Amino acid sequence: MNDLNIYLTVGAILFSLGLYGVITRRNGVAVLMGVELILNSANVNFVAFARFGGMNLSGHIFAMFVIILAAAEAAVALAIIINLYNKFGTVNVDDARSLKQ
Amino acid sequence: MFIPELILVGSMLLGIFADLFYDRKHSFRVGHWIIGGLVVAALALYLTPASESITLFMGTIVADPFARMFKYIFLLTTTIVILMSLRTDELKTVRTGEYYLLIAAITLGMFLMASSVDLIMIYLSIEVVSIVSFILAGYLKTQVRSTEASLKYVIYGAFSSGIMLYGFSLLFGLTGTTKLFEIRESLAALDGGTLTLTVATIMIMAGFGYKISAVPFHFWTPDVYEGAPTPITAFLSVGPKAAGFALLIRVFNTLFTGTDALTASVWQSLEGLPWQEVMAALAAITMTLGNVLAIQQSNVKRLLAYSSIAHAGYILMGIPVLSQSGIYAVMFYVVVYLFMQLGAFFVVITIKNKFGTEEIEEYGGIGFKSPYLGVIMAIFLFSLTGLPPTAGFIGKFYLFSAVIDAKMYWLAIVGALNSVIALYYYMRIVKMMYLQGEREDELYMPSKFQSILLAVLAVPTIIFGVYWTPIADWIRNSLVFFLP
Question: How far is B190 from chain A (nearest CA, A)?
Fold first, then answer.
């Protein structure tokens, strides 16, 4: 079971790094990278649980779905960030504040 | 059965094909195709046996009366939103063929949200709705504020669904399955691991809270609602929110309760997991913050955004009471909320088309310049406040009585105080329309199409405040969940 703990620790570290990245980074692309880290930390968990917990294949299947959806999400998010660059001339998410009151 | 969903997919494909033959000026006709598809889907839904309660696709989604009712709500919402989109000036400058296709895609996602009973399917359906909403929020890509809205939406959305996913992975590790009903059995037999379960529950709540824009996951709401095209704002504040509540009811009442959940009239929550209290507190904070922040808004879309946060708080009251009457109240409120919220946004669109403003300060005298719009807007605002004899009052009445039945008196008091705050800022708009500005000789009457659509939304808002038996019966018959 020690093996599982190693994988879970890696997952938790990835999650924390992702959280840290989303909160501290101001560059839109870097924020997205943080989100990807969070998604992949969940993937590590799913696969590790399925492999070492003696469970069925649903963990692997879940991870596959997450990878596909992460790709779709990244495609849309990058398109939006490109559009942001065209409008604001920067990819810094803090500069987009025309709606703040 | 899955036929209504298949019809939706079919009409989307047909729409893509039809869009090839329209030039930019006529691409709005795709909207007509989609409306046709929605009507056929509604018909197919009507023709499936009403008491049907089965699982599909290896037990990942269910077709039961509860999901069926929400599917009707989604079809109605989408149809109205498409009709609104056909009449707004905002979308005149862009090609709108794929706009209508994307709305149909969200509808499919919401269908799946209301019926999924498997963690994979739940994540998939939430993402289908979210990713398409990001695009729609930024649809007017030449406008700065639309771009900004979609940016904020995509960052908050991706972030909170990531957190929810991590919660799912913990839940999967604790129980070893992704099927809700099997998870419930393992959780009931779970020995230890309460801390992990609590963390997982909070993380899952983050994802759902984002969908229904509950505090503290609401930060995207005002900016997205203000920046997105107004029909999309109306859509996001009703459709995905209702879907979020359907999912919330199904997931929390299946996972974190005893085995008698959803069949008995009152049930127990899982021992050692205080999610009821947390959710009641979230409801109280959500409505208070939404209402208090709405007071100082000057843009009417932003005001309605905060008010929709407050309404999410009201509706959320019905879930932690853990009783049939609580779920009944939630469903009733979602139905009446659909009419009044979409109606208020359609008045905003009509006023923007004619008078070119979204600022409350500039609403002065609209009650005189256009008596029809003024009266209709007043009806919707009275209903949103929850004054009798409107449907909003009956909805609130059911919610409050469910809360009082569960002996959560403090929550009922917070809710009542909030209704008073809400009265202030809704009436500010009415005051603007009627007590300020100048009279004009020339009265403005919206086009025939707009007047009829407004009436279609306003009449139920009044009627259901006086005679709500049909809805009450309908919901009572829909309170049947698939249980293995």
Answer: 15
Radius of gyration of chain A (CA): 17
Q: Compute the distance between CA of residue B252 and CA of residue B269 in angstroms, rounded to an integer.
A: 9
Using CA atoms, how far residue A58 sits from B121, B124, B170, in Å, is 12, 14, 14
CA dihedral A15, A20, A22, A25 (to 10 degrees): -150
- C-alpha–C-alpha distance, residues A7 and B335, integer Å: 46
Instruction: Dump pLDDT digits (tens) for B391-416.
Output: 999 999 999 999 999 888 999 999 99
Q: Which domains are assigned to chain A?
A: 2-92 (1.10.287.3510)
| 3-class secondary structure, B55 | strand
Segment holding B345, helix H or strand E: helix B324-355
B246-261 mean pLDDT? 83
Residue in the block written with tokens 């709606």? A99
Buried b or exposed e, range B282-311, using 16+ CB within 10 angstroms? bbbbbbbbbbebbeebebbbbbbbbbbbbb
β-partners of residue B54 are B63
Residues of A in contact with B135 (CB under 8 A): 76
Shortest CA distance from B150: residue in chain A: A80
Q: What is the ipTM of this complex?
A: 0.95
Cis amide prior to B216 (ω within 30 degrees): yes
Within an 8 Å CB–CB cutoff, is residue B138 touching chain A? yes
Query: What is the per-residue burial (b if ≥16 Cβ within 10 Å, else e) of B137-157?
Result: bbbbbebbbbbbbbbbbbbbb
Determine phi and psi for B268, rounding to 5 degrees.
-105, 150
| Contact status, residue B243 vs residue B334, Cβ threshold 8 Å | no
Q: Rounded distance, CA B254 to CA B371, Å?
A: 49
Kind and range of the H or E element at B46?
helix B29-47
d(CA B74, CA B68): 10
Is it the case that residue B439 has pLDDT exceeding 80? no
CA–CA gap between residue B316 and residue B287 (Å, rounded)? 9
* Cβ–Cβ < 8 Å for A49, B169: yes
Give pLDDT tens digits for B280-304: 999 999 999 999 999 989 899 999 9
Contact map slice: A 36-65 vs B, CB within 8 A: 38-39, 41-43, 45-46, 49, 53, 55-56, 58-59, 61-62, 65
Q: How far is A7 from chain B (nearest CA, A)?
A: 12
Q: What is the dihedral of CA B386, B216, B108, B349, to 10 degrees?
A: 50
Distance CA(B312)–CA(B101), nearest Å, equals 27
Helix B119-137 vs helix B230-255: angle between axes, to the nearest 10 degrees? 170
Taking CA atoms, B219 is separated from B160, B211, B222, B342, B403, in Å, by: 11, 12, 7, 22, 27
With bands split at pLDDT 50, 70 and 90, how would you rate the model's confidence at B38?
very high
- Amino acid identity of residue B162, one-letter, is G
